C-alpha cells in the first residue's frame, strides 16, 4: 500500500485524550510524550506517533487532520507536542460531519479518494466517510486491541 495522503483524527488517535477542546490553555510540555493544561490535565501522545509522521513525510506522503474539535485548542496541543509542522492541512472543525471535511481535504490537496488512508477511533465516523467516499481505505484505531498501531501502519506502507 502506498497512499498519497493519510488523514488522521486527533482525539484518541494521535493522543489518549477524548476531547482536547475541553482543556484549558496554556499547555506545557512535561515530557517527550506528555503535556498538561493549566489545571494539570495530562494528554499523552500515542506510541510511535512522531516516528510515523516523520516516516510519512520522508516518503512524500501528505498528511492531514480530520478532527471534531475547536481549531485553536487542537492547534495549541499540536504545537505543544511540536507536531503541527508535519501536516500539510489541518482540518479541525467543531462538528461531526467528517465526510464534509474529507471532501474539502481531497479538494484542497488535490488527491483522489483511492489514494487516501483515513484513521479514526470511531466506527460511526469511518462509516460516514466511507458512505461518501467508498474508495478511501479506512482504519479503525482501537488502543486496547491489536487492530492498529502506528508501527503497523509504517510496516503496511513499507518502502
UniProtKB/TrEMBL annotation:
It comes from the Archaea. One of its GO terms (molecular function) is phosphatase activity. InterPro entries: HAD-like_sf, HAD_sf, HAD_SF_ppase_IIIC, MDP_1_eu_arc. NCBIfam families: HAD-SF-IIIC (TIGR01681), MDP-1 (TIGR01685). This is Magnesium-dependent phosphatase-1. The lineage of its organism: Archaea, Thermoproteota, Candidatus Korarchaeia, Candidatus Korarchaeales, Candidatus Korarchaeaceae.
Amino acid at each position: 500500500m502506498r497512499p498519497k495522503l493519510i488523514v488522521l483524527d486527533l482525539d484518541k488517535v494521535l493522543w489518549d485524550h477524548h476531547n482536547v477542546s475541553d482543556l484549558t490553555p496554556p499547555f506545557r510540555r512535561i515530557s517527550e510524550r506528555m503535556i498538561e493544561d493549566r489545571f494539570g490535565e495530562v494528554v499523552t501522545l500515542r506510541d510511535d506517533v512522531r516516528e510515523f509522521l516523520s516516516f510519512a513525510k520522508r516518503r512524500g506522503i501528505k498528511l492531514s487532520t480530520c478532527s471534531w474539535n475547536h481549531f485553536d485548542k487542537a492547534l495549541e496541543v499540536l504545537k505543544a507536542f511540536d507536531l503541527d509542522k508535519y501536516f500539510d492541512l489541518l482540518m479541525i472543525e467543531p462538528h461531526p460531519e467528517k465526510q464534509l471535511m474529507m471532501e474539502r481535504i481531497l479538494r484542497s490537496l488535490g488527491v483522489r479518494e483511492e489514494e487516501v488512508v483515513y484513521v479514526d477511533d470511531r466506527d460511526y465516523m469511518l462509516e460516514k466517510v466511507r458512505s461518501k467516499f467508498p474508495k478511501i481505505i479506512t482504519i479503525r484505531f482501537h488502543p486496547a486491541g491489536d487492530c492498529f498501531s502506528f508501527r503497523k501502519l509504517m510496516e503496511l506502507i513499507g518502502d
